[in-house]
Every structure is written in structure tokens, then in C-alpha cells.
Amino acid sequence: MSAAKNPFAQVRLEQLAYRFPDASRWDVNLQRLRAMGMRAAIVGPRGNGKTTLLRELHRRLSRPTADVKSPISKPFPAHVEGDSHGSLLLNVCRCNSWLSSEPPEHAVDRKTQRAFIEKTLHSLNRNTVLLVDGIERMTWIDRQRLVRFQASPQRCAGLVITAHQDCRILGLKTWVRAKPTANLLNELIAELGVEMKIPIESQPGNIRDALRDLYDEYAKR
Q: In CATH terms, is domain 22-177 a member of 2.40.160?
């Protein structure tokens, strides 16, 4: 099977929407995030949708407010219904692009990382929600500096990060806990148009790796 026809091709995987673990709707989860003051963490093991969720949040906060009942569709940042903001997405893993969830081939030195973050945060303002993917690749001192000073409530409208563990020590509650389950994997497989079922008792530890294994399986056919 050619790569273009493989149902598990990367270009198709990137089009999959994030599914919340409790199957709740986006509006419900956004309301929870607002109740947290727009300052929280997306927590979970590697390869289970944290980056996908952060990107979707970025799109929802940054897109034109076409879903708001108004004769004029305004771009963010705009004060619409009291709680709409623009967003700024920072990918610490790559230090040059947020278009891929893959880590770079070589580790970025601290000086380069700091320079990239400083440059990115230059456009941060009080109407912007900062979204940080891969904060755990920063040193502990730089994390503290980012959360408590560079992205303090006085400097931006919110802060949402991805992490592998709870971030209460940074003062951030958990907004969503990404959990790998066979049910979730089966839902994604069905959305890709493939008729197959992963046994419920088979709990995947990494959804992304499980989908890549299926890509290899189909490539051999």
C-alpha cells in the first residue's frame, strides 16, 4: 500500500480532532478553564494528545468570532462576551516551530532556548493567553521565571501548558488529564475509516505510537 493511500498516514493523523477523556464538549471544558482563571496544565504521558489539544485551543482562541451572533466578524483579540482572548503558542521542544510534536534531533542549548522564548514573548500582552508546549524541557529556574514573571497574571490573559506530571508546584491546576485507552484508540481508528477493533483489555500506553504501528501494518499489505 502506498503512503498516500495508507489510512494512518501522518497527514491524516494530524487532522484528527482531540477527544476529551470524559467525552465532554468543548464549551464545557472551556468554561472549566475560564473558572480556573485561564491558568492551568494539560497533563499526561507522551503521545496521548496533549499537543493536539493545545493546538486546538490555540485555534479556538485565535480564530475570527464567526460563531458569535454579531453582524461583524472580528478577529482576536477582541472583547466578545467578556471572556474571549487571542493566544500565543510557544513550542519549547523545537524552538523554531510548533507545527510538529516531534522533538528536535539535537538538544537546544539553554542560551538559544532563552533567546527564542524571549523573542516569542515579545508580542505577549494582557489580552493574550500564552500556550506553552514542552515546558519540562526548560530548566527548573526558567520554568519558574516563565510562570511567575514572564507570564504572570499581570502580563497576560492566561497560561496553559503541557506537562507529564501535575504542576501544582508551579501554581497551575490540571485542566485536562490525557489518558490512553483502547476505547479512545478505537474511536480514532473508526474516524480514519478503518474497520477494526482493538481489544478493550489491551490498554495502549501511547496512542501516537499505536497509530504508527498500524501505519506499518497497513504498509506491509
A: no
20-54 pLDDT tens trace: 888 789 999 999 999 999 999 999 988 888 999 99
Burial (CB count <10 Å: 0-12, 13-18, 19+), residue 130: buried
CA–CA distance, 120 with 143 (Å, rounded to integer):
15
> With a threshold of 0.90, does the pTM exceed it?
no
Give Cβ neighbours of residue 24 (< 8 Å, ≥ 6 apart): none
Q: Domain coordinates of the chain in residue numbers?
A: 1-19+180-221, 22-177
Other Cβ atoms less than 10 A from the Cβ of 57: the count is: 23
Q: Is 129 helix (H, G, I), strand (E, B) or coil?
A: strand
Residue 68 pLDDT class (50, 70, 90 cuts): very low
Q: Are 171 and 142 in contact (CB under 8 A)?
A: no
Q: If you ran DSSP here, which 8-state letter would residue 95 be given?
A: S
Label residue 220 exposed, middle or buried (CB < 10 Å: 0-12, 13-18, 19+): exposed
What does the block give as the cell for 46?
Answer: 507522551
In 3D space, the residue among 55, 64, 59 whose CA is nearest the CA of residue 90 turns out to be 55
146-198 pLDDT per residue, tens: 999 999 999 999 999 999 999 988 999 999 998 888 888 888 989 888 888 88
Question: How far, in Å, CA of 207 to CA of 31, rounded?
Answer: 27
